[in-house]
Amino acid sequence: MIRKLLIATLASTGLSAPAFAQEGADYATTGESTIIVTAARTILPPSALPLTIDIIDKDALDQQLAISGSVTDAVATLSPSFSPTRQKLSGAGETLRGRSPLYAINGIAQSTPLRDGSRDGFTIDGFFVDRVELIFGSNALQGIGGTGGIVNQVTVGAPTQEGISGRTLVQGTADNDFSKAGMGGKLAGLVQYKAGRFDASVGATYELRGIFRDGEGRPVGINLTQGETMDSKTLSLFGRFGYEVTDTMRLDLIASRFELEGDGNYEVVTGSRATGLPTSQRRGTPPGIPATGRTESVALSLTDPDLGGGNLVSQIFWNRSRDTFGGEPNPIATFQDASIAPVGTLFDQSQNRSRKIGGKLSYEREMPGFEALTLIAGFDALWDTTEQRLIATDRAWVPPTDFRSLAPFGQANLKLFDGLVRLAGGARYENVKITIDDYTTLASSGSTFVAGGSPTFDDILLNGGVIVEPIKGIRAYASYAEGYTVPDVGRITRAVRTPGVDIDNFLDISPIISNNRELGFEVKRGPLDASASYFWSSSTKGQLLIARPDGIFDVVRQRVEIEGLEINLAVKMPNDGLTLSAGYAHIVGRFDDDGDGVVETDLDGANISPDRLNLAASYVNGPLSSRIQTQFYLSRSFEGPNRDPRNDFGGYNLTDAIVRYQTGIGGISLAVQNLFDKQYISYASDTQRPTDNFFNFVGRGRTFTLGWDSRF
Question: Taking residues 439-456, what's their average pLDDT?
Answer without folding.
Answer: 95
